Amino acid sequence: MPDHTQGATAPTPATDAPLAEAAPQPPVAAVTAAMGTLDNQKLKRLYEQLLQCRMLAERAAPVLERHTSPVSYTCVPGEEAIVVGALSHLLPDDCIASSRRDLLCDFLKGVPLKDLFRRLRRKSAAAARSHSKRDEVTGSELNIIAPTLAHGSAVPAIMGAGAALAFKLQKRPLATIAFSSDEAAAQGPWQESLRYAALHKLPIMHVVRCSAPTAGRRGHPRASVKSLSALALACEAPAIAVDASDAVAIYRITFESIRRAREGHGPALILCIPCRWDAQKTATMPPQAQSRTARWKPHDPVVFMENYLRQKGLWSDKWNKALIRSFRRKLDEAARMR
Question: Per-residue pLDDT averaged across 37-48, rounded?
């Protein structure tokens, strides 16, 4: 388990007021102060969000498999830490731009569970267009930009940069978080967006989901990180590589990146890389050793965070079971609504 305190700056006092209650267009210093520091309460909140995302993904998986519309929701197991860590600092008017329609992004940005399940039940794009939106929160209302025609569309990256430009011109301390991947077909739009944002010092963070190596491409993620870091260097933007399963590390890095962006220092590139060392080590152990270490899986974001809380003395089985019961009731209620 990495020590997240190394290299960290001294914590600053934080207000307990919810972000949603912040006054409109506050000074940048007030916004960054409202984000707060990663205290024990927020560490537990991070775990709660990870757990909720995992439970939502598991409940939605059977529906996603049956979905037939041109653009269905995407929810990749093991990416909960990327989404939770990156979005924990968002203000209500901040923007999300994603190269795919991500179920967890919508959930964390504030789309009600009942609306998510209504969308999941739609069988076609025509049904989605004909569905009444009278009582449904839409992505545009929450500043969520996602593909409408095909995954990997260039539209979200372009519109995300446009939103960041609008924030700057309006002198509002807001930011855009743009999610993409290191797949060759998806790189062009967001790389151009990064170059444009760096040139104009726009408040946008590009979060790249780097792929794990596969047979015959063992060096793919490392080579990708090297080339993407070189791109950021050429744009004079910081590039930070982080363990994709470590919500705490992603939280800290995104916090600093958003703080810089809100203060007018331009974009940042955050490369979320799958941590493979422990997974490979476990895979080579004899079966009896694997069973003894099965509970400690640092490549699983939820278990990774659970062990981190145990090390900090913040874990309670009773608390964990209460979280599961409470959110399961909410999922059951949302799934029953029509």
Answer: 92
Indicate the pairing of strand 144-145 with strand 95-98: parallel
Mean pLDDT, rounded, of the chain: 78
* pTM recorded for the entire structure: 0.79
Q: Which residue is it, tokens 């995992």?
A: 54
Size (the chain), residues: 338
24 by Cβ neighbours in 10 Å (0-12 / 13-18 / 19+) ranks as exposed
Domains and CATH numbers, the chain: 24-336 (3.40.50.970)
Judge contact between 192 and 159, C-beta under 8 A: no
Query: pLDDT tens-digit profile of 280-294?
Result: 444 444 455 445 444
Q: In the chain, where does DSSP find H-type helix?
A: 28-35, 40-66, 80-87, 103-109, 113-121, 125-130, 155-169, 184-200, 220-234, 247-262, 277-283, 287-293, 301-311, 317-336
As a whole number of angstroms, the distance between CA 195 and CA 126 comes to 37
Q: Are 209 and 82 in contact (CB under 8 A)?
A: yes
Cβ neighbours for 268, distance < 8 A, ≥ 6 positions apart: 205, 206, 232, 237, 238, 239, 240, 257, 260, 261
Q: Cβ atoms within 10 A of the Cβ of 307, count? A: 17
